[in-house]
Amino acid sequence: MNTFLKPLAFTICFLTASFLTSALPVQEKFVPLRAVDSSVSPAVIKAAGEKFFSELSDEYFLNRYYEFMEDPENAAGAEKSRVFDYLVADLNGDGRMELFVTNKNLCIAANCETVVYEVGENNTLTKILDTDGVFSVSTAAGAGGYKIIRTNRHESALERSVAEFRYNAALGEYQQIAKPKLIKNKK
Question: Which of 12, 13, 72, 129 is the most exposed place for a label (fewest CB within 10 A)?
Answer without folding.
Answer: 72
